[in-house]
């Protein structure tokens, strides 16, 4: 296994710990002052460029929205699933206006709250404009908000990365030079990802689901506990699967942000101690105490309290809005029940529809359990292995649930791809990047062709489209596996270079 | 394949780092071996691909009826002389009518309608408008419902179809079979009348029979504006009823409002044309089957018609072939070699039925070439193409009678045989309980009774493109190594992301290709009448202007790569990957286009190398390589390739007239919704440009 050692780690002049570090720093300070102006300018330029790109992505979306017929994207199975389709939402709203249960006729399967928010927009028209305009604008705003929140998360993560690197003595300056602005990158990846654009223009509600997920993560990263709880509750309410994010959010709130394993810090510190002063016996117990980080029970309890409160709110609101049509029972049956029992077998980019169309009826329940437990099985091992990197853990959970979801769409991939971009600093050495890129590109171009062959031309059959879905799932799996292994390799590389540094120091 | 290769490539990267590596799995080692020796293997694979293409006529299988329910020819024909004389009577009446009434009007339609209603059929008339050339290449992806009525309706030019429906006594009105006879009501020739005669004989029989379980629709299509348009217009109205009253209805005394009848889903359609006299004494039946984008009807339909025509009615059946290939000497040599090899194989083991006679091989390849050509163009070869848009299997039967039109005695016999053929086919289709699904949809014909299925012809294509991912992987590895060496510190940070710059360039050029593809839409909107030549000049200038702007914009220009230190190996690797993805996509949309495109694009991409170092080194081998790549790049330019193919056919074109011809050709492609146009604009052209960039790369 070859790890690429970071250049700044590799050079021997690099290890500057303790006093020597400070001396050099002082010497450099003069130089720095002159450099500071340049750097500020550079930063300004960078952020200016970021805003230009972000704005242009919004303009691009607006142009696409103004096309007549909306490019027919909203009827693509890749974009809108039974859960996220705006057409179904409009239907549900219409049913509700006609004093019927919005869930009548198995058309709508989303949340009743979304219905009350987005429903009126599907009916309202501005004169002379296409009917979908208001909804599209809402989705565009949701996308922008998500991008900004991602940027906020990225800034925090970047700061944490710089801090950790300095603590480990791997970064010479206090400036975060050489660290990529992962927040900007993630925001731009989110805004310019064709998947995001397609699901925004294609009028699926996934931008709003994504916004809720990102909101939860943002709240956790910035330690705004009520916000995190709110995002989590809403995201879970909208699409159930983000419930898995409870684990990473609790870890973030309990242990803090992503950091290299705690062992490394201990190692560095012990070396520092050896170097700076004669090791005294009295210091040993102190070190032992810090081998475990304190878990902030209070914050977590706070968080759980807020989660309870917000879920209560959501449930009460739902009950109010559905009290004539069967109440919460009906809602759970028609939303979560629909997700879990995979009633709709119309084709999508997942692998479930084909399987459950083929499976014998008496095995159906068994396989439903097997397929859903798949996600649950992976939660715990991953949480144990990646507990020092909770944000990354959240990314992995989201990626896995988007592979094993019952009704996946490209909107889900857009979410985890942009979260992935938050870790560009750690994942620079990820393998297969070009191969994965080609794979995602090929699959996403192939998918409409296969669909066309099957549905319109009649020369293909369901296997064609399903083969494409399998290919997509495979690429996603390779992507997740490679990301995790790159992250673990990064940790190992850190450990190794700390060891070599120490070796040099001893010599 | 691609996946494996990439694996190996990364595997190699790993071993380069010098870290201990456990023994890789055999498949991984095989991959590493392939990538490491990619030049040899790419030559081998490409040669094998071309060889497999040449072998295809040998590998053709005999057709067979796959669907048991069809049972062609198992029932005795019920057609009597009385029915045939009914047909003769209609033909005679029409002829007389024409002699007496010259000029316009819908009188002939009325006459045919009268005949139909005498045969207890429901009759109605449908008006339609000829459609101008419209730019809709992207309509390939949308359904057929995108047909829209033109806003400005003029009564000056419109056609009138006559449709008669016989309701099936044993049917529930949910399924139907369509018979189409294209007929020019104004100046139809004597031979065209014969097709009406055949179908009216059949119609007179079908109105009496008790076995019919699918309704029969007879559409007499007004072929004044081409064969395709009236059928497409009728189908559009049949499948997508519009609730807007068209202005066309008010045009004439003939009231066609509110009487459009339907008869359930169409199970199959047969288009009958009688056309010109055959050069032989016997009657010749030609089968046309290619619909838009190389789609074919179910093979069973062709099989049934072929079986009945050959074994029951004694027609000489043929499919189209490239005549010039029949006399080509190199094909003869190839055929003789294959024949000799087959004989040798036969002596070794008599069970090996490998060889076919050289003459048969030539015949097969000429037919195969014609099939590939018409599929690659993506333009339907007749009105049957309109049916394919609605997933209906349809073929055109063109009969060339072996007698002059005024020979009464043979005409009667001709009607009898023609309508017996149709009767047998309809009886077979009538037996079906479900749609045609049993036999193949993806095939090419090498003779009326021989076909090559998708599983066989894909091998040739796969071998041809298999070298692309291999070479891409090995170039990627080389490029990464070179880059790490040249720029030590700054680039190492992004070890696995070095391809991003190259990808940006490739993306920029593909974007340019996309814009160039859409340009004709705007050029068509330019007010005023322009000749195709002027339009092509406009297109050329705007495209080259765009290219120049693209090149001058820093960042996306392929020539600014010195700034980023991108070396050509990575650029070539990304280019090859893009070409690979594009070709694979196209092979699923339209195999023939992808095959021909791969024959052009694969060697161009593989041989493209910067010529500067080759010129500097002055070695024969590298100079030869540079020369080859220059020649390939020159041929690969679509316009020049077009000129060369035209030249081979025998129409030498030079200068500006070439541009006009090219424009007209492309116009026909997009007017017929051919995906080939998209392929040329969005895959071939960008990859060609990238190859040019690599050729002149400042390395």
Mind sketching the topology for me?
The complex is a heterodimer of chains A (507) and B (699).
Chain A: H1 7-10, H2 18-65, H3 86-97, H4 112-123, H5 133-167, H6 182-192, H7 194-201, H8 206-221, H9 225-239, H10 246-255, H11 262-276, H12 283-289, H13 297-321, H14 327-334, H15 336-341, H16 352-358, H17 364-385, H18 390-403, H19 410-420, H20 433-457, H21 462-506
Chain B: H1 2-16, H2 26-36, H3 38-59, E1 61-62, H4 81-100, H5 107-118, E2 122-128, E3 159-166, E4 175-183, H6 190-206, E5 215-222, H7 228-239, E6 265-274, E7 284-288, H8 299-311, E8 316-319, H9 323-326, H10 329-348, H11 358-377, H12 384-388, E9 393-400, H13 408-431, E10 443-447, E11 450-453, H14 454-486, H15 499-525, H16 532-552, H17 561-564, H18 568-589, H19 591-607, H20 611-617, H21 620-636, H22 638-649, H23 656-671, H24 675-695
Region (Disordered) (chain B): 1-20
Pfam families (chain B): Gaa1 (PF04114)
Keywords (chain B): Membrane, Transmembrane, Transmembrane helix
What does this structure look like?
- The complex is a heterodimer of chains A (507) and B (699).
- Chain A is mainly alpha-helical and 507 residues long.
- Chain A has one domain (73-337, 346-506).
- Chain A contains 21 helices and no strands.
- In chain A, helix 2 (18-65) packs antiparallel against helix 5 (133-167), helix 2 packs parallel to helix 6 (182-192) and helix 8 (206-221) runs parallel beside helix 10 (246-255).
- The longest helix of chain A is centred in the N-terminal third of the chain and has 48 residues, at 18-65.
- Chain A is globular and about 80 Å long.
- Chain B is an alpha/beta fold.
- Chain B has 24 helices and eleven strands.
- In chain B, helix 8 links the parallel strand 7 (284-288) and strand 8.
- Chain B has helices at 2-16, 26-36, 38-59, 81-100, 107-118, 190-206, 228-239, 299-311, 323-326, 329-348, 358-377, 384-388, 408-431, 454-486, 499-525, 532-552, 561-564, 568-589, 591-607, 611-617, 620-636, 638-649, 656-671, 675-695; strands at 61-62, 122-128, 159-166, 175-183, 215-222, 265-274, 284-288, 316-319, 393-400, 443-447, 450-453.
- The longest helix of chain B is centred in the last third of the chain and has 33 residues, at 454-486.
- Chain B has an eight-stranded mixed β-sheet.
- Mean pLDDT of chain B is 82; it is low at 1-20, 143-147 and 488-492.
- The A-B interface holds A 1-4, 6-7, 72, 178, 428-435, 437-439, 441-442, 445-446, 448-450, 452-453, 456-459 and B 2-3, 6-7, 9-10, 13-21, 140-144, 295, 388, 391, 441-442, 476, 489, 492-497, 499, 503, 574, 577, 581, 584-585, 588-589.
């Amino acid at each position: 296994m070859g790890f690429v050692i970071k250049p700044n780690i590799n050079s021997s002049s690099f290890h500057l710990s303790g006093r020597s570090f400070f001396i050099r720093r002082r010497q450099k300070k003069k130089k720095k002052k002159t450099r500071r102006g340049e750097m500020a300018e550079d930063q300004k330029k960078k952020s200016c460029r970021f805003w230009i790109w972000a704005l242009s992505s919004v303009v691009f979306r607006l142009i696409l929205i103004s096309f007549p017929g909306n490019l027919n994207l909203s009827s693509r199975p890749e974009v809108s699933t039974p859960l996220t389709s705006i057409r179904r939402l409009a239907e549900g709203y219409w049913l509700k206006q006609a004093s019927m249960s919005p869930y009548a006729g198995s058309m709508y399967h989303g949340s009743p709250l979304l219905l009350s928010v987005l429903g009126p927009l599907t009916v309202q028209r501005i004169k002379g404009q296409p009917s979908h305009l208001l909804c599209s604008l809402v989705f565009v705003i949701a996308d922008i908000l998500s991008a900004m929140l991602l940027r906020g998360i990225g800034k925090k993560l970047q700061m944490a990365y710089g801090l950790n690197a300095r603590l480990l003595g791997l970064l010479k300056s206090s400036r975060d030079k050489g660290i990529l602005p992962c927040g900007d990158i993630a925001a731009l990846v989110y805004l310019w990802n064709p998947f995001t654009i397609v699901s925004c223009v294609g009028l699926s509600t996934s931008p709003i689901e994504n916004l809720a997920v990102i909101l939860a993560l943002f709240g956790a990263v910035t330690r705004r506990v009520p916000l995190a709880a709110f995002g989590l509750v809403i995201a879970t309410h909208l699409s159930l699967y983000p419930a898995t994010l409870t684990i990473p959010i609790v870890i973030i709130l309990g242990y803090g942000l992503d950091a290299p394993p705690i062992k490394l810090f201990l190692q560095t510190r012990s070396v520092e101690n050896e170097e700076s002063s004669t090791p005294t016996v009295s210091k040993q117990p102190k070190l032992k105490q810090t081998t475990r980080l304190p878990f902030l029970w209070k914050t977590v309890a706070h968080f759980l309290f807020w989660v309870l409160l917000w879920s209560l709110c959501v449930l009460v609101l739902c009950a109010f809005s559905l009290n004539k049509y069967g109440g919460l029972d009906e809602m759970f049956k028609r939303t979560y029940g629909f997700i879990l029992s995979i009633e709709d077998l119309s084709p999508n980019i997942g692998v479930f529809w084909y399987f459950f169309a083929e499976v014998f009826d008496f095995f159906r329940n068994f396989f439903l359990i097997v397929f859903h437990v798949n996600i649950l099985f992976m939660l715990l091992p991953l949480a144990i292995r990646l507990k020092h990197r909770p944000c990354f853990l959240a990314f992995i959970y989201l990626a896995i649930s988007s592979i094993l979801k019952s009704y996946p769409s490209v909107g889900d991939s857009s979410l985890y791809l942009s979260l992935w971009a938050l870790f560009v600093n750690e994942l620079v050495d990820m393998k297969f990047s070009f191969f994965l890129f080609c794979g995602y590109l090929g699959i996403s171009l192939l998918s409409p062709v296969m669909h066309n062959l099957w549905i319109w031309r009649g020369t293909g059959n369901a296997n064609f489209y399903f083969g494409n879905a399998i290919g997509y799932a495979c690429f996603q799996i390779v992507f997740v596996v490679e990301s995790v292994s790159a992250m673990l390799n990064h940790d190992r590389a850190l450990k190794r270079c700390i060891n070599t540094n120490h070796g040099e120091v001893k010599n | 394949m691609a996946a494996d290769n990439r694996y190996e490539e990364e595997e190699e990267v790993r071993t380069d780092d010098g870290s201990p590596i456990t023994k890789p799995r055999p498949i991984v080692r095989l991959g590493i071996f392939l990538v490491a020796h990619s030049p040899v293997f790419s030559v081998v694979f490409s040669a094998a691909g071309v060889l497999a293409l040449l072998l295809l006529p040998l590998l053709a299988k005999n057709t067979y009826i796959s669907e048991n329910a069809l049972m062609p020819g198992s029932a005795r024909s019920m057609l009597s002389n009385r029915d045939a004389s009914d047909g003769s009577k209609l033909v005679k009446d029409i002829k007389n009518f024409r002699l007496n009434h010259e000029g316009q009007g819908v009188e002939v339609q009325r006459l045919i309608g009268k005949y139909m209603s005498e045969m207890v059929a429901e009759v109605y008339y449908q008006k339609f408008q000829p459609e101008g050339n419209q730019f809709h290449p992207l309509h390939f992806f949308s359904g057929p419902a995108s047909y829209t009525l033109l806003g400005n309706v003029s009564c000056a030019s419109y056609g009138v179809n006559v449709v008669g429906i016989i309701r099936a006594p044993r049917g529930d009105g949910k399924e139907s079979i369509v018979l189409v006879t294209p007929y020019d009501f104004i100046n139809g020739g004597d031979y065209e009348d014969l097709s009406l005669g055949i179908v009216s004989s059949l119609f007179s029989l079908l109105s009496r029979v008790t076995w019919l379980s699918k309704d029969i629709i007879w559409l007499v299509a007004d072929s004044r504006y081409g064969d395709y348009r009236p059928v497409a217009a009728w189908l559009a109205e049949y499948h997508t009823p519009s609730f807007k009253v068209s202005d066309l209805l008010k045009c004439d005394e003939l009231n066609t409002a509110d009487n459009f009848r339907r008869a359930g889903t169409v199970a199959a359609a047969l288009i009958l044309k009688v056309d010109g006299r055959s050069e032989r004494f016997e009657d010749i039946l030609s089968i046309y089957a290619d619909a838009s984008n190389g789609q074919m009807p179910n093979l069973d339909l062709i099989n049934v018609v072929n079986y009945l025509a050959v074994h029951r009615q004694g027609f000489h059946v043929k499919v189209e072939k490239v005549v010039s290939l029949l006399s080509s000497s190199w094909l003869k040599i190839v055929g003789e070699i294959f024949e000799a090899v087959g004989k040798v194989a036969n002596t070794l083991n008599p069970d090996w039925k490998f060889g076919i006679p050289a003459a048969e091989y030539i015949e097969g390849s000429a037919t195969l070439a014609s099939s590939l050509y018409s599929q690659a163009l993506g333009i339907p070869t007749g009105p049957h193409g309109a049916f394919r848009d609605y997933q209906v299997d349809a073929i055109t039967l063109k009969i060339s009678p072996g007698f002059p039109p005024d020979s009464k005695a043979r005409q009667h016999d001709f009607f009898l045989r023609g309508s017996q053929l149709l009767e047998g086919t309809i009886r077979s289709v009538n037996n079906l309980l479900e749609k045609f699904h049993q036999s193949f949809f993806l095939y090419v014909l090498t003779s009326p009774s021989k076909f090559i299925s998708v599983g066989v012809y894909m091998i040739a294509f796969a071998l041809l493109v298999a070298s692309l991912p291999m070479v891409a992987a090995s170039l990627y590895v080389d490029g990464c190594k070179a880059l790490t060496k040249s720029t030590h510190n700054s680039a190492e940070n992004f070890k696995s992301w070095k391809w991003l710059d190259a990808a940006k360039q490739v993306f920029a050029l593909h974007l340019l290709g996309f814009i160039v593809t859409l340009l004709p839409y705007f050029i068509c909107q330019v007010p005023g009448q322009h000749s195709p030549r002027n339009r092509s000049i406009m297109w050329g200038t705007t495209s080259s202007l765009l290219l120049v702007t693209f090149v001058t914009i820093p960042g996306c220009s392929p020539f600014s790569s010195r700034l980023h230190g991108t070396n050509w190996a990575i650029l070539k690797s990304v280019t090859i990957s893009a070409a690979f993805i594009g070709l694979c996509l196209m092979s699923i949309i339209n195999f023939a286009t992808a095959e021909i495109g791969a024959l052009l694009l694969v060697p161009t991409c593989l041989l493209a190398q910067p010529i500067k170092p080759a010129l500097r080194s002055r070695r024969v081998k590298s100079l030869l390589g540079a020369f080859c790549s220059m020649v390939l790049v020159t041929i690969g330019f679509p316009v020049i390739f077009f000129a060369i193919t035209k030249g081979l056919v025998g129409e030498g074109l030079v200068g500006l007239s070439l541009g006009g011809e090219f424009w007209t050709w492309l116009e026909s492609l997009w007017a017929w919704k051919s995906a080939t146009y998209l392929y040329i604009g969005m895959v071939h052209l960008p990859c060609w440009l990238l190859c040019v960039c690599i050729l002149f790369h400042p390395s």
